[in-house]
Fold:
Amino acid sequence: MRILHTSDWHLGRSFHRVNMLGAQTGFIGHLVSVAREREVDAVVVSGDVYDRAVPPLAAVELFDDALHRLAGLGVPTVMISGNHDSARRLGVGAGLIDRAGIHLRTDPTAIGTPVVLRDTFGDVAFYGLPYLEPALVKDAFGVEKAGHESVLAAAMDRVRADLAARAEGTRSVVLAHAFVTGGEASDSERDITVGGVAAVPSGVFDGVDYVALGHLHGCQTITGRVRYSGSPLPYSFSEADHRKSMWLVDLAGDGSVTAERVDCPVPRALARIRGALEELLVDPDLARHEEAWVEATLTDAVRPADPMARLTERFPHTLSLTFDPERRPGDPDVTYARRLAGRADQEIAEDFVLHVRGAGADENERGVLRDAFDAVRADETVREVAR
Structure:
């Protein structure tokens, strides 16, 4: 069975101030063409179909067009909701859409009920694990402590139990939206940390033939059977070095897997440039970036006049401008933003405790802070989904 694995479309998202709807439309057309030309037997979309719980109308219309085009090909499609999606909204009409060969899996309680497709070697069971917010699903799964590993382990127990009851030789594919240990993150994924832990070990998924992951935006291989497709388009400059693609997976009759990367259309290259303004404006090595979307970091000791206007004369698609003056080691003139760069909320809070009382937080206090941040994030998720 030939499977086209994609994820993280983020329909409705922009790239800085650039509307990406045209590029997203181009990707959908590319996906349909690949499915037709490469004789794909099934398409899997591993979450974050939309960029937010209540997407703009144009994004909904593009999603509707994608469903019609995939259904028109007669290629079965299995989709799950991600942490950016509203599972309830994405799943509206799932029962009816199912008849057209578009299988939306957004209900955590239905994880043990797969979509079963057949090829010449027999059945292939596709299990959809939508994004599982630990605080919201732990009771349904009988998990005492909310955590990504515990709820995913409970979900996979249901998958393995169903698979064990099926005919011998039934092959299996799991769609999941999670941060798996060994994956490389970028700046454009929403933080899903719970209890100070975001990642789960790949061993959670043992016992199935292929795991089609979503959430991380870089295409990557965790193991030969566990892969991220990544997002088809860039959504932050941290993805400048990404090769945007999908996985074309061949699942053999014995359950063995071979996978080929299929490149996605590139609307415009990304470039990150750094240096003093006058140098950036004349450096001949930067000529290759003149038509790229550019993030420029200026290192001038004194902020130059009209830097964006001058940059866009050479790099007309400059979207981001930051300042990072080169200073001597120990120079106290460091901005608050620079001191916090790359630090998690928990670390910032613990540093604050150390600053105001002269002693760091003990283990119990760190636990209180962790629980507070988890509660706020879970509450934000609930309120967003309920909108």
